Amino acid sequence: MHLCTLSVTEIALTDTKLPSLATVPLLCSAMEWVSWESAVTRIIMSIGLCGHICWVPRVGDLKDPTSHIALPPHYDFDSTPEETEAYCIFWHNDDIVEHCLVGKLSQEIQDSLPPKHGGKYDLPVRTAQDLLAFLREHFGIGSASAARYTKARVFELHATHAMISSYVQSWQAAVHQLSGTPWDFTP
């Protein structure tokens, strides 16, 4: 069952041009995680859909006022046309973000992804946020070995006058990757 096939929104959205993933390295293991996530995040931010990959804060966490989390709107078969349109737009945008997330994954990783559709009517059930959380947990900084690799990589760096900018960017990326994990840089 395709909910939006006859919708004006669907027709208007079919001309969407997907972003190029030419600058994104192939993600095959945790070794490529930092560069893969950085490149994917940059693309998603450049198309204005970063709300589809923002972390949903845990209970008790301070909310980031700059973070606009995109969550799927309520939908059922009694929804108004406006609610149906909002639902279709959300999932259309989420599909664009998913393209960015899965477009440069190895076949092995793609085969391990949880299904996107489910339930009685085969509607979408997995968001891009869910997908990124799954990838982070299984192939990113979701394991102690990946965290050790990331820390070792930045601890081996040396700042030279000509490379200060890349040195700082590497450290910022590593700190960002590990923040909020059990393996962050806190003493």
Give the topology.
Blueprint: H1 8-13, H2 33-46, H3 81-102, H4 107-112, E1 117-118, E2 123-124, H5 128-139, H6 144-155, H7 164-178
Antiparallel strand pairs: 1-2
Summarize the structure in words:
Strand 1 and strand 2 form a beta hairpin. The protein has 187 residues and is mainly alpha-helical. It contains seven helices and two strands. It is 47% helix and 2% strand. The N terminus is likely disordered.
Largest sheet: 2 strands, antiparallel
Q: What's the SSE pattern?
A: HHHHEEHHH
Terminal-residue CA separation: 53 Å
Helix content: 40-55%
Question: How many distinct beta strands?
Answer: 2
- Name the structural class: mainly alpha
Short description:
This protein has 187 residues and is mainly alpha-helical.
Characteristic key phrases:
187 residues; mainly alpha; two-stranded antiparallel sheet; 2 strands; disordered N terminus
